[in-house]
Request: fold
Amino acid sequence: MLKEFIDKQRAKSELLNVFSNMGLYKTYKKGNDRELKAYPKVHAVIFKEKTIEYTFTLLNGMDPKELKKKEYVLSQHFGNHFKIEGENKKFVLIIYKTRMKKELTYSYEDIKESIKDMKVPIICGMNLNGEWVAYDAKTEPNALISGEPGSGKSTQLRSILCTLIQTKSPQELHLYLGDLKMSEFHLFRGVDHVKEVSVFPEELERMLGKVYTEMVKRSKLLNKAGVMHVDDLPKNKRVPYIVLAIDEIVMVMDNKDIKKMLVQIDSLGRALGIYNILSLQRPSHDILDTKVRSLLTVRMGFRTTDLSNAKIIGTPGSDKISKDTPGRFLLKRDTLTEIQAPYLDENKAKKLLEGYKSKKQENSVETEINENEKETKDDVGLNDTTELTEKDVFFDAIDEA
Reply:
């Protein structure tokens, strides 16, 4: 008891010293021009296993904005492993004893315990307490992932999709993927869960049309059965969950038909078991208007160029994430939480996904690739007796230039 009392007094004294460095005090004169400093009142110091929590109140006349403005002093004293909750006068300062990992390697074995009770688990990463953070798309159906190149956005999408594939069977989950950057989702071709991968805007429009048609079909099914959610349908009428993931959505947001379908899918999909993940590098108000953003309730803000972009995503502070911590992001659900995303490199993902590809799917993908190659040859005027080497293409391009 005595040791705990002494430790609390030391911690309280330490915080008052921080307040002094922040200039967060009021000065009074007392006899003989002696000056006294009055600091915010510290009500409690609570030691927990992984944190120290201070509860304090600002004195009358103290501006809460000054506390926010001087947060850098807290960073200098406690590092970046703290957060402040509260407003007006009363606040709670939480200091984390553990340090967030700068690098986190993806491992399904590490994750699976934290997602075992979820219907459609979306893995996020690890928080300051060293705990895995995930959410269920069944209750939080639509997400936006945004961040600068190299910030960790792409590997986050890869981790989310690989986790879903390992958690659900192809009968329980269908994936529709839009790879408008043409560089992210090729790994998933041939996976039994994956129904389609579109890389061109016209392909994406057709794919969304299929999902939209399925949405209408499911709406009629719920209405006929008199239930509120696809999980409530009789077992012989159950339908698989659908996750729609589109990378670099900015490429098609000027297409009114695509935008209209996305808005309707995002508005109605929750009860129908249809969930959406959109990602892009640089958001703007004209790309992500209020209607679209309001439907994307979960936000993952990786490093952004400036505060304006961070605010559009809904994760103010992601503009301050260092380039030295790729995979670090701010997760916005009810509150903002700092998270380290797991890193899953392309080769590891490719090896992992091999076990989820059937021979039938592989043959289908090979046929699709061959057909695409044939179309490409036809487009450039090739026939069976004509060969075009890389050198020919190179010099032809120079001649045209």
